[in-house]
Amino acid sequence: MSLLNVKVLTKAMPQLLSLLLILFLNYLAFPGFFDIRLQDGRLFGSLIDVLNRGAPVIILAIGMTAVIASRGVDLSVGAVMAVSGALAATMTVAGYPLPIVILATLGAGLLCGLWNGILVAYFDLQPIVATLILMVAGRGIAQLITEGSIVTFNEPSLIFFGTGSFAGIPMPILIAALLLIIAITVVRRTALGLLIESIGINRSASSYAGLNSKLLLLVIYAFCGFCAALAGIIIAADIRGADANNAGLWLELDAILAVVVGGTSLFGGRFSILMSALGAIIIQAMNTGILLSGFPPEYNLILKALVIIVILLSQSFSSAGGWTFIKAEFLSKGRKRH
Amino acid sequence: MAFMKKILLASTVAVAFAGYANAADLTVGFSQIGSESGWRAAETSVSKIEAEKRGINLKIADAQQKQENQIKAIRGFVAQGVDAIFIAPVVATGWDIVLTEAKEANIPVILLDRTIETKSDDLYLTAVTSDTVHEGKVAGEWLVKTVAGKDCKVVELQGTVGSSPAINRKKGFEEGIASASNIKITRSQTGDFTRSKGKEVMEGFLKAENGGKDICALYAHNDDMAVGAIQAIKEAGLKPGKDILVVSIDAVPDIFKAMAEGEANATVELTPNMAGPAFDALKAFKDGGKAPPKWIQTESKLYTQADDPKKVYEEKKGLGY
What is residue A9's predicted lDDT score, i.e. its pLDDT? Predict the structure, then answer.
């Protein structure tokens, strides 16, 4: 068991080092970065901000990991977030009770995911094209629901999902952590994870081996839609309003990036949900750091790009056995010379 | 083809003359960009209200963010022989040909909200727009007057990097506070004109400025970012509107709600009523032949908590913001 942990830790080394480095840079840019205090019974501090703001992307990344592991991609999650936020806000304003609002919203997310899943699994559309349809149409649907305006609400029970807290921990963090634990348990304590990896590596071989790969793909995409709807509720609750034009805009790219930074290959196969969540935290730590640093906003995207390049290069370097190469080529040669 | 054009021209002239006979029968075609924002929706509904007030028949064509749709709509209006054409142009260039066609048909064109680049200014009668630099300046001058000489550190939430309202509203605000050495912008970041980014960036500002205790005022390039930031200030245990002054631009309904609750202090209106001044200029032109100036600047009105924000909120709510 301990051997396994060491193995896992070495594999996660580039990501953990990147996170530590970013946190350290944040600390240099802003010495109060690690200060945490209680504010109105809620933890308050930059580190909490990282987790709290990162929660929606963590949730998206959980669903996205499963999709990418099946050798797919889901571009529609941002739009599905907008749809679910719009639905939650308009239903709340219309006076529906909270349980019905939540069920309807999550149900809508599942439906969106099922739509993607049907296109990918049963009509054999390429995932990038199939989900592009909903990425474009979803925002239109959200705008239809909100009639083009920002729908604001003041219902405390729904707002609780965005800004409430339990035992001092903000709700978005709790929801993301809970979903993370459930997802990891389900894929790793059953054969599900293995089956997802197998259709990601070779779908037809898996089908020949007796796996119902169509149904499994359907479930994976539906789950991804569910995650997007959950993230959409949190984002809408956070600003007490549904902004169909901007909610979740470009977050599909952040989610994909989180999965890639976490080390899951875009070509499917082996995946790690925990590492994707770590990837999402790395991205958010970087975002929060940039906001705290006081750099002019023109530099935001360039800084982000630089950090991402460094992280991805260091990953590919170590996974290609770069350190062993350096040791063998330079250090041993040096020794021979003397 | 030339024959067709002649007939069209003749009918246009006939309609135009009918227009002269009775101003109440004016027909105006309005090529609107689309409904990408609440403000745009409000502009459309205010245009309808203003037309109704004057007994003008307003035909609106929604271009759904596409210039080719706008060009089609303008050609349609020319063919129908309307008395005037209003355009809210989606882009600045590429209008010369279609505007020449309108000019040959003797139909005056008025630009709303945005201007264009043309070979010659004669292609349109006038442009009714807001001065975004001036908007920022009004906000800055309000702050100078309000803090009255006290030291004041300001944090700024910028619009989308590189967009012209963001550049101009920043410039205008800096001009507005230039005379007051007691006011300094200490932090400035982009909130992309959205609520959620406004909130996230404000959370960062609050942490970086001693939990928000060092911040005296927030200037946001639009109300939506201010609304998000107000929530962040509240969650940090401070009172927006008192501990941190909040001034922003646009005057959308939700900021009036915040002002009524004492959580925002001032907003500068980007009026959705661009059509009103355009109708007035058009009428003066049709009745007396007096050409208006090439640019009609709309009023950048300042609203504060003293202006009965609750009432303004109720008035604005129905406009489709």
Answer: 77
Looking at residue B168, its amino acid is: N
Rounded Cα distance, A171 and B45, in Å: 40
What chain A residue is nearest to B228 in terms of C-alpha separation? A239
Average pLDDT value over all residues in chain B: 90
Given CB atoms, is A93 within the 8 Å cutoff of chain B?
Answer: no
Average pLDDT over residues B130-142: 96
Closest by CA to B173, choosing from B192, B194, B152, is B152
Distance CA A149, CA A129 (A): 29
Q: Report the pLDDT value the prediction gives residue B13, as an integer from 0 to 100.
A: 45
Helix (H, G, I), strand (E, B) or coil at B51: helix
Q: Which of B192, B203, B206 is best to mutate for the A interface (most A CBs within 10 A)? A: B203
B203-235: pLDDT as tens digits:
999 999 998 999 999 999 999 999 999 999 999
Task: Using an 8 Å CB-CB cutoff, list chain A residues near B194.
Answer: 243, 246
Residue B2 has pLDDT above 90, yes or no: no
Is the pLDDT score of B99 beyond 90?
Answer: yes
User: From edge to edge, which strands make up the β-sheet containing B152-158?
Assistant: B183-190, B152-158, B217-220, B245-250, B266-269, B302-304
Lowest mean pLDDT among A14-23, A316-325, B28-37, B268-277: A316-325
Of A240, A300, A298, A314, nearest in space to A88 by CA: A240
Would you call A150 and B224 a contact, using CB atoms and an 8 Å cutoff? Answer: yes
Q: Residue B152 pairs with which residues in a beta bridge?
A: B183
Q: CA–CA separation, A47 vs A105, rounded Å? A: 30
Q: State whether residue B36 sits within 8 Å of chain A by CB.
A: yes
* Chain B residues lying within 8 Å of A42, measured CB to CB: 235
Given a cut of 60, whether residue B121 has pLDDT beyond it is: yes
Residue B20 has pLDDT above 90, yes or no: no
d(CA B298, CA B277): 8
Distance of CA B68 to the CA centre of its chain: 23
* Alpha-carbon B300 to chain mean position: 9
Model confidence, pTM: 0.87
CA distance A298 to chain B (A): 7
**Does pLDDT of B128 surpass 90?**
yes
Nearest CA in chain A to B254: A152
Identify the segments of chain A with pLDDT beneath 50: 1, 338
Q: Which two tokens stand for residue B220?
A: 């946001």
B21's CB contacts (< 8 A; 6+ apart) are: none
- Of A252, A253, A270, the closest CA to residue A319 belongs to A270
CB atoms within 10 A of CB B164: 12
The verdict on B195 touching A (C-beta cutoff 8 Å) is yes
CA proximity to B96, closest of B66, B63, B131, B67: B67
Distance from CA of A240 to the nearest CA of B (A): 9
- Return the CA Rg of chain A: 21
Name chain A contacts of B38, Cβ cutoff 8 Å: 148-150
List Cβ neighbours of B27 (8 Å cut-off, separation of 6 or more): B15, B19, B56, B57, B58, B59, B80, B82, B83
pLDDT of residue A303: 87
Distance (Å, whole) CA B31 – CA B89: 8
Lowest mean pLDDT among B5-14, B55-64, B161-170: B5-14
Cβ separation of B207 and A45 shorter than 8 Å?
yes
What pLDDT band is residue B17 in, cutting at 50, 70 and 90?
Answer: very low
Whole-angstrom distance, CA of residue A332 vs CA of residue A317: 19
- Taking an 8 Å cut-off on Cβ atoms, the answer to whether B36 and A288 are in contact is no
Provide mean pLDDT across the span B315-321: 84
